[in-house]
Amino acid sequence: MRRKGLLFIVSAPSGAGKTSLCREVLDIFPVLRHSVSFTTRPPRNGEIHGRDYYFVAKGEFQRMVRDGEFAEWAEVHGNCYGTALSTLAEAREEGVDLILDIDCQGARQLRAKGVEGVSIFILPPSYSELRRRLEGRDSDTSEVIETRMANAVKEIGQAGSYDYIIVNDQFPRAVEELRAIIIAEHQRLALMIDSVSKEFNIQGG
Ligand code: 5GP
To answer: What is the CA(194)–ligand 1 centre distance, in A?
Structure first.
């Protein structure tokens, strides 16, 4: 029987270090894959179509919404982002886990639809540290930074609906915490029972 893949739904305000954290654990677990979202945002330097995102025109994104091709989608910072149902179906088919790096609106939609997943919210150590990190990026204007700070307050307000919280203060420690969550979820009875029941007669599984 094919292993049941898990969905790890990871959200964080911009600047909390979510992308780097996800990248680290993707290197650790071969069974884990990054869920490639569709977006109307133009690619940034170094981003590759099909690896980082599927970059599509607004019209194509709207057609996909109309045709019900998304498990969830949302407008974030003026661009549209969505997870295709086909992405989830392919992972299910192959028995691999997915990391969905999505915002709170998307996570809420999946919860409302009853999609099973393990949700993790990444927090910065404090608002002042978040501001310091955003300012350190150099690439953003002060207006953009203020918008991101205001959005961060809203997003952090949603953290109470998640299963796990990680405070990304010391990066290696945050990686360890995310790794520990993934390992613990892999050891759940529901996932283990099929493989161990060939050898052991376990009641109640
Ligand atoms: P960025 O443009 O910096 O890559 O992503 C901006 C925000 O969009 C991040 O918070 C990211 O988690 C979110 N995002 C990326 N893909 C999706 C998606 O498929 N659905 C939703 N709801 N949010 C997404």
So the answer is: 35
